[in-house]
Structure prediction request, 281 residues.
Amino acid sequence: MGQPEQHAEGAGPFATRLTWHPPGGGTAVWESRPARRRGVIAVRRPGAPTVRHARADEAGLGRLRRLNAVAATAFVIGGALFAIGAGIAQFGSGDATTCASVYFAGGLFFNTGGYVSLLQVVNAPRHEPGGEGRLVTHGWRWWSYEPGRADWLGAFVLFAGTLVFAVDLLDSFLQGLSVQQVNRLVWAPDVIGCLLFLISGHLGFAEICHRGRPCLRRRDLGWWIVAVNQLGSVLFMVSAIAAYTRPATGSLVNAGLANWATLTGASCFTLAGLLQHGERP
Prediction:
């Protein structure tokens, strides 16, 4: 007997929502983000007035809770440290090395949050295509390669962005750099990291909206997390552009804008991390 026919929705090549009729009747709906963050599939049984959620086993749910707590906490602390670093730079309460050290510490937390976010995708319970509508927990993995999945690609691009930021933050400790070296070693990785964050946010919207353009879902906590993070990414890009060093004068395009955009963007990541604590099984 063949598998029940599935209706797939998503953006481009990515399937982010599958709907099918289980052998026992009714309708089952798998959505990428709720399945990997909350460990649930929506199932409506024949004659049932409401939709219930089929959950993963306790081992899988416990794994999701722990990973979510670590990732969310890392982004809260990382964002807070970046905001503090921007405040130091703006109000002159410390020297350049102190500012760079605070940024670097924040970057380490962003690295942690980015990698654990990837682990959340890699180790999330998987659905059985065409089955009754349940999630299966597989063995632990530290890595996978699944570029055909929007959630994996989004998390991977985010993690890559945090690693590029690490290059920028390390190079910021170098002394005696020329203007050209500053733009190449510090500014360019900053812009690339911001661009990767923006791409990751766009993939996050594609996963939630099941289409290539953003949508508005005010009652969806996952949507708010992605939206706030994306706002932070936009502000980080504004900061990066304003931090370009003019070769003719050796001064930044707009130091004040760079600092304030970093501070508000980092605050967005802290807020999104706090919201993420609520998006768990």
Q: What stands out?
A: The chain has a mean pLDDT of 90. Residues 122 and 143 are 7 Å apart (CA to CA).
